[in-house]
Amino acid sequence: MTQGTVRPGRCRLSLSPELRNNGVVKNVGEARETPTGPPQEELATGERSTRNRVARSILDHGPSTVAELAGRLGLTQAAVRRHLDALAADDVVEARERRVYGARTRGRPAKVFALTDCGRDAFDQSYDKLAADALRWIADQEGGQEAVAAFARARIAAQAHAYRKAIEGAGPDERAEALAKALSQDGYAATARSAPLPHKGEQLCQHHCPVAHVAEQFPQLCEAETEIFAELLGTHVQRLATIAHGDGVCTTFIPKIPNDASASTAGRNPA
Question: Is the peptide bond before 198 cis (omega within 30 degrees of 0)?
């Protein structure tokens, strides 16, 4: 997954570059984090920009009440509630009771809004660096690049259980499409289409790669994925392009399998 974006199939918060980082909002005319005047509405920021600022404020300051958010962002409480309702519908924030430390006072604890795991994933994380550091350690300590390749194969094999199930339930001419749908469930935004003539077969296109930044440094991840595609589809496949190498889409050519051969080759990669 690229940094600062939301995983497909989960929450739908899309962050502007100004909000992915820890800096202040730079757009002229936006309400500042510490307003000097009376609360003001969204001005020219737009619905999505203001919604992102609400989420960003919760990230920076922790679980917050409607009143706290309104004061920090220079919005009315009614406007904050409206944005919180939309963020909750997108699984970005959730309401909870404020944790009370020490003796509990009378009355119900204040309701605060906190980011969900999905909401946190919308902001920049250092997972890519952590993964790359871990693979580099494996290479240095556990047997070089072949150890990284073994890890990559084990990783994709664990993911492949769902892919195998989807393909086994599809007909011979529907396997590429079934694999594309299964990959999309894991965030790869995949499609399958007929390959351009004169080639006979299909192209599997992955429009997003959650591990692209790490795969730039460790191509074993792409190689293991290609191997598992061949195994699952029961035919040799050819990787034509990858996002990790700077291409816009990961593209894999899948040659057409004769109908009389599909049954005998399904589930394995022919020599």
Answer: yes
CATH number of 17-121: 1.10.10.10
Domain boundaries, the chain: 17-121, 127-265
Q: How far is the C-alpha of 57 from the C-alpha of 105, rounded, in Å?
A: 27
Residue 127 three-state SS:
helix
In angstroms, the CA 268 to CA 61 distance is 52
DSSP character at residue 195? P
Global model pTM greater than 0.70:
no
HSE-CB at 234 with a 13 A cutoff on CA atoms is 21
112 neighbors 98 (Cβ within 8 angstroms): yes
pLDDT band per the 50, 70, 90 thresholds, residue 248: confident
* Cβ atoms < 10 Å from Cβ of 143: 12
User: Among candidates 152, 207, 148, which has minimal Cα distance to 183?
Assistant: 207
Query: Any idea which fold 127-265 has?
Result: Muramoyl-pentapeptide Carboxypeptidase; domain 2 (3.30.1380)
Of residues 158, 185, 184, 163, the one with CA closest to residue 175? 163
